[in-house]
């Protein structure tokens, strides 16, 4: 190793960029780091590291009397761009306890900036932007660093190069375009091409996704929704409706009538075949295979609820979502296929398919969404207003549900909330069962089978008067329910959580809702609440008209069936760091 005239220590410098990756290869050079001072910058196989040429008295810097660690490295996996910038100012050190103040003054020099993300100090899932500007008197040296860093970034796997972006301008508080503008420069700096479509009306993104040709579709690495859950649902449906070829779930009439046994063995299902784990078999479209590892969906949150973003990135932040997209993260997501058989009791049977990525709800949930649509002008507050109005009405609905019961190892060892295996339960119990929450590298999602007892599936039934019926595909965390509707629901375990709220007093229902709204609450520990893990269910209303809520969108259905497809789509995300 020898020092060259410009202060660079080089080894194997003659290696071309692509080979500049071995443990033996390293490049070290003295540069000026903006606002820090003179540093020895080292190029390592996995990133850059630097240390002050004149070390500090201790590892901390002090700014306005507040101590903070001085950054000393960035991994290539967190870098999204490097840019050579013009000859210009490098600011002197603002580290107050630097031993000497050789580099305390501003001066002009050639510069390059390394752009990346770092974990926020306050929230583990949150990412913030960082930019390190280094300076050197020699332009060639700066250019060499830029080339080497670019060569390493090119080796990073799975990063998108071309994306289709849909922006909903009126989403949430009407900030869809502003939200996109706040992150668009990150995409261009990262050299990710984007085709941006700002929607003009509801349904436009669905139509465009449904009609896009295979050639154009495969030219994209994914599609991004800048909006809320409803907007993402629209894009997802446009994508799946024409490409996902799977038999329908069984109709309520196939499962049988209420006069049959309450717990019967699974009948022969003419429409869907299920494997021995209770998972529906998929008949794939040969043009675009599903699940597709490469093609991913991204959501940049701008909606009123943003539950899908909360559950997949752990926060509700456009920069964090952009981090997951430009760095090419990937997580699988279960999707529920909902087939409506009849709109009203008097309608003829006409199957109509919709997909839901987070939640399908009836009764209270359907009424809240119907009511809230009247107050869309209120923005996100409409849900609180509509929720209060619907709660005060305290309506219940006669309906019949049949569900495919799935027993899992976990379900056997841990009593379910609302399902204590025949044991007598107080009407409310403060004890909370241990639950496995879905997080980054989730073991439950990464296991190959959704349940441990193949063949142990049976159809069970529940008939009566319900305040609400909910099927959660994921935890559905949101501002109103910080733990989600189901704290231990997973992104891709192949299961839905069916939550049946039987008719009860107004006070008890309020108690249940209060538990949902509380972090660490026990919303299922009530006699009137049933919680079942399932892969498929059917529903028939006893009334004439009934409204469901699919991912926050209205869906009128008198009779429907639903089944979940494990990991049907991939998302630019890695799961919450909770
Ligand atoms: N340009 C548009 N004008 C009106 N509605 C639109 C437009 N583009 C899309 N939509 C529809 O608006 C509905 C709501 O959108 P979105 O989900 O983004 O907002 P939100 O309801 O405020 O948020 P959330 O679903 O998170 O509660 C979706 O069904 C979407 O299809």
UniProtKB/TrEMBL annotation:
Where is it found, in Gene Ontology cellular component terms?
membrane
Recorded hits in SUPFAM superfamilies, A to Z, give:
NAD kinase/diacylglycerol kinase-like
Write down what this protein is called.
Ceramide kinase
- Note the superkingdom of the native organism: Eukaryota
Q: Which segments of the protein form a coiled coil according to its record?
A: none
UniProt entry tagged with the keyword Kinase = yes
Q: Name one GO molecular function term.
A: ceramide kinase activity
Whether Kinase counts among this entry's keywords is yes
Q: Which intervals hold domain DAGKc? A: 158-342
Q: Which GO terms describe its biological process?
A: ceramide metabolic process
Cited Gene3D superfamilies? 2.60.200.40, Probable inorganic polyphosphate/atp-NAD kinase, domain 1
């Amino acid at each position: 190793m020898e020092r060259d005239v410009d202060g660079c220590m080089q080894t194997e410098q003659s290696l071309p960029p692509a080979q500049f990756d071995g443990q033996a290869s390293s490049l070290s050079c003295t540069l000026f780091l903006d606002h820090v001072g003179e540093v020895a910058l080292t190029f390592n196989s996995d990133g850059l590291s630097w240390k002050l040429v004149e070390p500090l008295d201790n590892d901390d810097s002090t700014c306005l009397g507040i101590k903070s660690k001085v950054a000393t490295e960035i991994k290539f996996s967190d870098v999204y761009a490097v840019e050579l910038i013009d000859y210009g100012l490098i600011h002197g050190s603002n580290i107050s306890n630097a031993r000497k103040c050789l580099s305390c003054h501003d001066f002009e020099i050639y510069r390059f900036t390394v752009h990346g993300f770092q974990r926020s100090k306050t929230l583990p899932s949150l990412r913030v932007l960082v930019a390190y500007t280094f300076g050197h008197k020699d332009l060639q040296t700066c250019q060499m660093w830029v080339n080497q860093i670019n060569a390493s970034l090119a080796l990073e796997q799975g990063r998108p190069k071309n994306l289709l972006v849909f922006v909903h301008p009126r989403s949430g508080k009407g900030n869809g375009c502003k939200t996109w503008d706040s992150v668009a420069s990150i995409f261009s700096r990262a050299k990710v091409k984007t085709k941006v479509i700002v929607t003009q009306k509801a349904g436009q993104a669905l139509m465009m996704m449904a009609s896009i040709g295979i050639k154009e579709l495969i030219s994209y690495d994914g599609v991004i929704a800048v909006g809320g859950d409803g907007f993402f649902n629209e894009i997802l449906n446009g994508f799946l409706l024409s490409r996902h070829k799977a038999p329908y779930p069984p109709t309520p009439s196939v499962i049988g009538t209420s006069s049959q046994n309450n717990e019967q063995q699974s009948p022969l299902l003419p429409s869907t075949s299920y494997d021995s784990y209770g998972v529906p078999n998929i008949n794939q479209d040969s043009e675009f295979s599903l699940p597709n590892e490469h093609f991913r969906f991204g959501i940049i949150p701008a909606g009123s609820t943003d539950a899908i973003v909360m559950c997949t990135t752990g926060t509700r932040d456009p920069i964090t979502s952009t981090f997951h997209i430009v760095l090419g993260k990937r997580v699988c997501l279960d999707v529920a296929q909902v087939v409506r058989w009849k709109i009203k009791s008097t309608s003829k049977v006409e199957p109509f398919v919709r997909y839901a990525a987070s939640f399908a709800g009836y009764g209270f949930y359907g009424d809240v969404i119907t009511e809230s649509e009247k107050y869309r002008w209120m923005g996100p507050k409409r849900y609180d207003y509509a929720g209060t109005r619907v709660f005060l009405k305290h309506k219940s609905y006669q309906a019949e549900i049949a569900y495919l019961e799935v027993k899992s190892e976990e379900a056997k060892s841990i009593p379910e909330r609302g399902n204590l295996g025949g044991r007598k339960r107080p009407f409310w119990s403060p004890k909370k069962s241990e639950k496995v929450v879905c997080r980054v590298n989730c073991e439950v999602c990464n296991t190959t089978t959704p349940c441990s007892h193949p063949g142990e599936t049976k159809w069970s039934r529940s008939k009566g008067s319900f305040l609400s019926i909910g099927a959660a595909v994921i935890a559905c965390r949101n501002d109103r329910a910080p733990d989600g509707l189901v704290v231990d629901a997973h992104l891709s375990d192949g299961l839905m959580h069916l939550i049946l709220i039987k008719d009860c007093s107004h006070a008890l229902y309020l108690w249940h809702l209060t538990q949902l709204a509380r972090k660490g609450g026990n919303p299922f520990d009530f006699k009137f609440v049933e919680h079942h893990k399932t892969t498929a269910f059917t529903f028939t209303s006893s009334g004439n008209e009934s409204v469901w809520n699919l991912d926050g969108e209205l869906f009128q259905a008198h009779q429907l069936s639903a089944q979940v497809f494990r990991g049907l789509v991939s998302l630019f995300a890695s799961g919450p760091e909770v």
